[in-house]
Design brief:
502 residues; alpha/beta; seven-stranded mixed beta sheet; 19 helices; globular
């Protein structure tokens, strides 16, 4: 197989290089006709492919080194447009997949988000954008989500480009282009691009924060008993090592309203409280918390706030201004459908300098958000394919996606809510939950039900055993069909009426 069949920036024949540039121009013109993210105004012809050396045996055509050195981060933005992955400009397959999503979304553009959420013809096209097996009903999209084919295709394409003269292609060509990803993520979150670091997951983002802050013995960090175990482990290590105090509060399951949560946080604050860690959406119940209210209380008392957005980001629609937090961390391989091992860290610009990176960085990087990305050699392909995940998300639309996810959760929740013995650990109120919910059948063991559902019916759910409650966490996604939710409900109804089969 000839190398030029892979496409990308390394092209084996000069004539093919000309064809590839022309092809990318056609793809770019094609995208202007669809309602995704608008491309930057600069023409794609500004991409400067250097001429091959003037000797007969030359067969390698690349972007010139001098052109790469002269490119600023803004130049790369002009090459690809905000949040647009370069594979979408050079791959007919990726372009075709985007075209399908764009055309489908155009067909529901006249509908409200809530109306579009019930348009099964539209969502059938979105479902077919994924290559998931239908032999398993996957209702555990909270841990990690499959990526749509557009993301996988882009990841493979970037990987091929990376594997050609890797030290050159990865570090000098692909890695600088990740600045377009930073810009796209900042736009989605509604902040300055110089406040966004690209990490490997929410845990890394939050560990950077929790391990990078200076505390004194006796300083208190306030969070809940339902916070994510890895974060509690991190803080308990600092307790043992440095003498700070971790203070945990309980919140109702589920609360009558979100004011009960903000009141619990406010009551837990003391004169020694230095930091509040709050999950935007609690991973085990799907409870959406009143982050902005808690952040306002904290700010008035001079307390910093970290928001764990592992599940909220790209599940429901919001911006940084809706939170008012100092710091935010999330995974991108959950609800954004980005490649596995991608995350986001937000640090308010005036707080970057005082925060220590998890892995050492030079002192000259003290005020640079990129100091949190100093992790040694890592793949550029994974990072760049976030661009196609952004395109897919924006192609559907954040509000439309949120409405569909809430529609799916309420579809199965409403069917089961009046079944005897079934109760919910999640509120039905729209401002308190979206895609994630937790359900329990009285007198049963969630782990036993989870095992039965998978072994006998290939339905994959998440058993939750917490000291305050227990149940099954159910997390459908945009590729989940109503028929799959019906099958899940049928089995839950049978177990509630007749018990778990022996």
């Amino acid at each position: 197989m000839h190398q030029h069949q892979h496409g990308g920036f390394f092209l084996r024949h000069p004539s093919f290089a000309c064809h590839a540039v022309a092809k990318r121009r056609r793809v770019l013109r094609h995208f202007h006709s669809f309602a995704l993210k608008p491309l930057a105004s600069a023409p794609f012809s500004h991409l400067d492919f250097g001429a091959p050396p003037n000797h007969a045996n030359s067969h390698l055509v690349t972007i010139s080194n001098s052109a790469l050195r002269e490119r600023t981060r803004r130049d790369f933005l002009l090459l690809a447009g905000k949040s647009l992955g370069l594979a979408a400009l050079s791959s007919a397959t990726v372009a075709s997949l985007l075209k399908t999503v764009a055309a489908a979304t155009q067909s529901v553009a006249h509908l409200t988000a809530e109306q579009a959420a019930m348009d099964e013809d539209y969502w059938a096209i979105i479902q077919n954008s994924f290559t998931v097996t239908r032999g398993i009903i996957n209702l555990n999209n909270g841990g990690v989500s499959p990526s749509p084919r557009i993301v996988t295709e882009a990841l493979v394409r970037y990987t091929w480009e990376q594997e050609d003269a890797t030290a050159y292609t990865m570090w000098q060509i692909l890695e600088p282009q990740s600045e377009t990803i930073r810009t796209g993520l900042a736009e989605l979150f509604g902040c300055d691009r110089e406040e966004i670091a690209i990490t490997r997951n929410a845990s890394e983002s939050l560990e950077i924060l929790l391990m990078g802050m200076d505390f004194k013995p006796g300083d208190e960090i306030l969070t809940t008993t339902q916070d994510y175990p890895r974060m509690l482990t991190t803080l308990r290590q600092r307790e043992r090592r440095e003498g700070l105090q971790l203070k945990l509060i309980q919140i109702p399951i589920p609360p009558k309203n979100r004011d009960q949560i903000s009141a619990a946080f406010e009551k837990g604050i003391t004169s020694r409280t230095r930091l509040i860690l709050i999950s935007h959406q609690i991973n085990i119940t799907g409870q959406i918390t009143p982050v902005k209210a808690v952040c306002e209380v904290a700010r008035a008392k001079g307390i910093e706030t970290i928001v764990d957005g592992a599940h909220s980001f790209a599940q429901f629609d919001f911006k940084q201004k809706d939170l008012g937090c100092d710091y935010f961390g999330t995974s991108l391989h959950k609800w954004l459908h980005a490649p596995k091992g991608t995350g986001l860290l937000y640090v308010k610009r005036d707080k970057i300098e005082k925060l220590w990176p998890l892995m050492a960085a030079e002192s000259k990087q003290a005020s640079d958000i990129r100091k949190f990305e100093e992790i040694g050699t890592h793949s550029a392909a994974i990072k760049l394919a976030i661009g196609e995940a952004l395109l897919f998300h924006n192609g559907i639309g954040g509000k439309r996606k949120e409405a569909r996810l809430r529609y799916l959760s309420r579809y199965w929740m409403n069917r089961l809510k009046d079944v005897p013995k079934i109760r919910f650990n999640t509120s039905f109120e729209p401002n308190q939950s979206c895609a994630i919910a937790n359900v329990h059948i009285d007198g049963t063991n969630p782990e036993a039900i989870g095992k039965y559902l998978f072994d006998k019916h290939h339905i994959f759910v998440t058993p939750i055993i917490h000291e305050e409650f227990q149940g099954l966490r159910i997390t459908p996604n945009v590729y989940t069909t109503l028929g799959e939710l019906d099958r899940f409900c049928e089995q839950m109804e049978l177990i509630a009426r007749k018990g778990l089969p022996s």
